[in-house]
């Protein structure tokens, strides 16, 4: 049985006050909640504060980040290395988010490099994949997801996915309120798992595949009731302690 993982991607949102309120609120909401891994990815600027607050809290919130570079140190202005993330206790690192693929022209190959670099440093990659609206309408969803995963499999072997997390986020569902139906998401998750199973049934069985894209407390339960949906990567609803905790609790309940 796969252990569900619910992660909040805070994107470019936050202030010291907001980080403090949100993490304190989450700590209170998540007290006593078992059976789900809950992670948050604040902007890198706030990792220090988040690490301190999580350390003081009672619930076991996992610290994550939204990006990493492919270099360890040196003349790479503005970038952040895996060791720096580790220094602040961040373990679950989002890579290949569609916003980075689009606004920073990150290719499948570049994202795969980040994947390898995180693994090399003992960090958990949260590999985002997903199709655009046009690709969806053209019936290319599974092919796009397979290509994005193959960039990792073909360079590092299928075993590289062992212990990693895949987040299926259809681009048209991100921040739009137009979420995929639970049935549609399940169909794609099953296809992604089947694609991995072509290389290794063992790895496919174990890999956590999250759904992301307009996940809210109201629709979370329906996703988690699906056999191949192992958690969620949450944007907007993760900025509120009550709604994010409600999603985490729904995962814990459904995957008992
Ligand atoms: P929303 O939950 O705001 O749609 O964002 C999803 C997302 O992009 C998480 O990485």
TrEMBL record:
Catalysed reactions, as listed in the record: D-glyceraldehyde 3-phosphate = dihydroxyacetone phosphate
Presence of keyword Isomerase: yes
Functional pathway: Carbohydrate biosynthesis; gluconeogenesis; Carbohydrate metabolism; erythritol degradation; Carbohydrate degradation; glycolysis; D-glyceraldehyde 3-phosphate from glycerone phosphate: step 1/1
Any single Gene Ontology cellular-component annotation: cytosol
UniProt keyword Cytoplasm, yes or no: yes
GO biological process terms on file: gluconeogenesis; glyceraldehyde-3-phosphate biosynthetic process; glycerol catabolic process; glycolytic process
Main localisation: cytoplasm
CDD domains, A to Z: TIM
Positions of the catalytic residues: 97 (electrophile), 169 (proton acceptor)
Record-linked NCBIfam families: tim
Protein's job: Involved in the gluconeogenesis. Catalyzes stereospecifically the conversion of dihydroxyacetone phosphate (DHAP) to D-glyceraldehyde-3-phosphate (G3P).
Protein name: Triosephosphate isomerase
Organism whose genome encodes this protein: Photobacterium proteolyticum
């Amino acid at each position: 049985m796969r252990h569900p993982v619910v992660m909040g991607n805070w994107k470019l949102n936050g202030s010291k006050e907001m980080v403090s309120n949100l993490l304190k609120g989450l700590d209170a909401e998540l007290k006593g909640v078992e059976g789900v891994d809950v992670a948050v990815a604040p902007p890198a600027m706030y990792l220090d504060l988040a690490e301190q607050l999580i350390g003081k809290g009672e619930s076991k919130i996992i610290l994550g980040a939204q990006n990493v570079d492919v270099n360890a140190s040196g003349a790479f202005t503005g970038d952040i290395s895996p060791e720096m993330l580790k220094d602040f206790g961040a373990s679950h690192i989002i890579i290949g988010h569609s916003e980075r693929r689009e606004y920073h022209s990150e290719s499948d190959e570049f994202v795969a490099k980040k994947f390898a670099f995180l693994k090399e440093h003992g960090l958990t990659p949260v590999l985002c994949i997903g199709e655009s609206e046009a690709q969806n309408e053209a019936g290319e969803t599974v092919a796009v997801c397979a290509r994005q995963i193959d960039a990792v499999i073909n360079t590092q072997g299928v075993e590289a996915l062992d212990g990693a997390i895949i987040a299926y986020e259809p681009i048209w569902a991100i921040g739009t309120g137009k979420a995929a139906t639970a049935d549609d998401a399940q169909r794609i998750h099953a296809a992604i798992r089947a694609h991995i199973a072509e290389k290794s049934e063992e790895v496919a069985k174990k890999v956590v595949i999250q759904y992301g894209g307009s996940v809210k407390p109201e629709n979370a339960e329906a996703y988690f009731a699906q056999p191949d949906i192992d958690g969620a990567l949450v944007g907007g609803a993760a900025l509120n302690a009550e709604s994010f905790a409600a999603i985490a609790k729904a995962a814990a309940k459904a995957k008992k």
